Amino acid sequence: MNGTNAPGIMEAEHSGQPIRSLQYMLNQLAIHNNVLTRLAVDGIFGERTLEAVMVFQRENSLPVTGVVDLATWNAIRDAYVHVELMYGFPPALNVLPCGTYTAVEGQKCEVLRIVQAMFGSLTKVMSNFSPCQMNCCNDGETYKNLREVQRLAGLPVTGTLDRSTWAYMVQLYQALVTRS
To answer: For position 144, what pLDDT does the model report?
Structure first.
């Protein structure tokens, strides 16, 4: 800066979305590191944010300046990515190839192995489904189970694996298997 500390310029430099992102990442790190303190994600680089940055710098053997330079930003981002991989929610699993994929009755495809494994877990918590053979084929119990998923979801009951059927099946699986 040129030596004039116009309040509007200083506030603009120390507030906004990049500061919210910084505060959010530091908060996520603080959940798993008792040395770091939680912050209000307000987009203002105030004293608590300055303190959190300095503590992070000290804990990660960076120069303790309170300035979020490229090295500090990258270290915070890398630590955040690691914490998200370890403790965050996993991303959605998109297993159906291309936008209009379907597996009709009698069709074989590798995607059905995942569907059949999910039915294996769902049979333990719902009497609506039957165990199915792990044969990558939309036949027998797999076909019947897909029809039941469609019936429960209020979809056309075709027995065909499509995006709508997959989406409802994932919801069932998450609600009844992974969250139980």
So the answer is: 97
